[in-house]
C-alpha cells in the first residue's frame, strides 16, 4: 500500500433528501500530515469526515483510506482508522480502564493502556465510571480511545471544544507528537488549527472554497490572522452566492 495517500477524496457528493451537504469536494491527505477541516456551521465538515470514516455512503465521487474503500473494505478500514466524533456516547456503566481495555481489544497492536491514560491525564480516573466523569474528561477519554489501535488515520471532530486551557495544551502536544498517523482535524478553534495543522481545507455550503497552509490562507485573503482569513473567505463566498441568486 506504499505510495497511497492516507486519505483521498474525489468529487465527493452527499445529500440528505433535498439538502445538499457536500458538493464536489476533492482533496488528499499524506501520511503523517495534520489536515484541518474548517467551515461555518452546517458547511459539511462532519458529513465529510463521516464519509471518510465509512459511517455514511457517498451519493457520488469516491473516498479511499490508504487505497481502500471505507464502504467495501469496511473491516480493513476499521483497523486503520481511529475516530473521535462530536459528543461520543460510550457505555455509561463501564469504568475508564474497562473502556480502554475494550477498545484495545479491537486492534491487533494497541497502544499500552498506561500510555493512553497518561496522554489525556486520566490515570487517576482509571476506576471511575464513564457517567461519573466530567464532560471534559469524557471528551479526553474519547480522544484516547481514538488513538488506542495505533491508527494510520485519525479523525478528530471538535478535538478540544470545552476543554480547559491546560488540557488543550496537553492534547495538542499529544497530537503534535504523532508521527505516522495522518490526522483529520475538524475545528472551530483557529489557535488550535494554526498550532497543529500542516494544511487546511475551508468548506462553505458544502463546497471546498480554499485549500492550503494556514499561512497561505492568510495571504490569499489579504488579512493578518487565520481567524480574519476564515471570516473574509467564507464571507466573500456568501456575497458571491447572494449576487448570483
Ligand atoms: N442526518 C442528517 N439529516 C439531514 N440533514 C443533515 C444531517 N446531518 C447533517 N445535515 C445537514 O447537512 C448540512 C451539513 O451538516 P454537517 O453536520 O456536515 O455540518 P458541519 O460543517 O459539521 O457543521 P457544525 O460546524 O455546525 O458542526 C447541514 O445543512 C445539516 O443541516
TrEMBL record:
GO cellular-component term (any): plasma membrane
InterPro entries: AAA+_ATPase (IPR003593), ABC_transporter-like_ATP-bd (IPR003439), ABC_transporter-like_CS (IPR017871), ABC_transporter_ATP-binding (IPR050763), P-loop_NTPase (IPR027417)
Sorted UniProt keywords: Antibiotic resistance, ATP-binding, Nucleotide-binding, Transport
Pfam short name (any one): ABC_tran
Domain of life from the UniProt record: Bacteria
UniProt GO MF annotations: ATP binding; ATP hydrolysis activity
GO biological processes: response to antibiotic
Subcellular location: Cell membrane
Membrane topology classification: Peripheral membrane protein
Location of the ABC transporter domain: 7-230
Major site of localization recorded for this protein: membrane
Transmembrane intervals: none
Name of the protein described by the UniProt record: ABC-2 type transport system ATP-binding protein
Amino acid at each position: 500500500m506504499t505510495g497511497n495517500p492516507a486519505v483521498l477524496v474525489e468529487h465527493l457528493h452527499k445529500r440528505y433528501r433535498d439538502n445538499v451537504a457536500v458538493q464536489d469536494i476533492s482533496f488528499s491527505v499524506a501520511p503523517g500530515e495534520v489536515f484541518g477541516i474548517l467551515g461555518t456551521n452546517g458547511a459539511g465538515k462532519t458529513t465529510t469526515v463521516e464519509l471518510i470514516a465509512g459511517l455514511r455512503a457517498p451519493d457520488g465521487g469516491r473516498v479511499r483510506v490508504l487505497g481502500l474503500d471505507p464502504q467495501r473494505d469496511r473491516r480493513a478500514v476499521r483497523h486503520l482508522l481511529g475516530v473521535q466524533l462530536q459528543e461520543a456516547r460510550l457505555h455509561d456503566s463501564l469504568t475508564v480502564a474497562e473502556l480502554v481495555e475494550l477498545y484495545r481489544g479491537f486492534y491487533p497492536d494497541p497502544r499500552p493502556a498506561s500510555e493512553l491514560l497518561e496522554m489525556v491525564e486520566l490515570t487517576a480516573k482509571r476506576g471511575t465510571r464513564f457517567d461519573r466523569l466530567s464532560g471534559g474528561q469524557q471528551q479526553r477519554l474519547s480522544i484516547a480511545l481514538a488513538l488506542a489501535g495505533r491508527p494510520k488515520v485519525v479523525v478528530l471532530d471538535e478535538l478540544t471544544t470545552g476543554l480547559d486551557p491546560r488540557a488543550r495544551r496537553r492534547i495538542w502536544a499529544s497530537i503534535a507528537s504523532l508521527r505516522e498517523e495522518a490526522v483529520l482535524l475538524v475545528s472551530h478553534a483557529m489557535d488550535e488549527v494554526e498550532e497543529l495543522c500542516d494544511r487546511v481545507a475551508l468548506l462553505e455550503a458544502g463546497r471546498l472554497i480554499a485549500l492550503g497552509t494556514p499561512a497561505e490562507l492568510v495571504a490569499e485573503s489579504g488579512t493578518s490572522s487565520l481567524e480574519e482569513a476564515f471570516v473574509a473567505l467564507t464571507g466573500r463566498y456568501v456575497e458571491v452566492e447572494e449576487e448570483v441568486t
